[in-house]
Amino acid sequence: MLVLPKELTQTQATACLRMLVQGLRALSGQEVVVDATGLSRFDSAALAVLLELRRETLAQGKRFSVRGLPARLGDLATLYGIVELLPAASPALVK
């Protein structure tokens, strides 16, 4: 599982994405779950990070999902028409 930081704004986006992609490369298995439960301060850059991480995940032939997407970030994803690209993780995958 990959974990988003507490704060993810434009200021942290590049470094955060770099860290997540490194973590992605180290993961085994076919399912990548991104834990967003701790994310409390964010802007639209958080969506850009998630979308790029999704792209990297799919390029490796793995499935991508998000656990605990904050409601406000989900609302923003809906507004941008991309919420379906950020599927919720199955409870069985996040034990």
Give a quick set of tags describing it.
alpha/beta, three-stranded parallel sheet, about 45% helix, globular
Briefly, what is this?
The protein has helices at 10-26, 45-59, 71-80, and strands spanning 2-3, 7-8, 31-35, 41-42, 63-67. By secondary structure, it is of the alpha/beta class.
Question: Would you give an account of this structure?
Answer:
The protein has 95 residues and is α/β, with parallel strands linked by helices. Helix content is 44%, strand content 17%. It is built from three helices and five strands; from the N terminus they run E-E-H-E-E-H-E-H. Strands 1-3-5 form a three-stranded parallel sheet. Helix 1 (10-26) runs parallel beside helix 2 (45-59).
List the topology elements.
Blueprint: E1 2-3, E2 7-8, H1 10-26, E3 31-35, E4 41-42, H2 45-59, E5 63-67, H3 71-80
Helix pairs in contact: 1-2
> So what's the overall shape?
globular
The helix content is 40-55%
Strand order of the largest sheet: 1-3-5
Strand portion, in percent? 15-25%
- Helix-strand topology string: EEHEEHEH
Q: Would you count the extended β strands for me?
A: 5
- Could you report the average pLDDT, rounded to the nearest whole number? 95
Distance between the termini: 10 Å
The main sheet comes to: 3 strands, parallel
User: What is the overall number of helices?
Assistant: 3
| SS class | alpha/beta
Low-confidence stretches: none
The rounded Rg comes to 12 Å
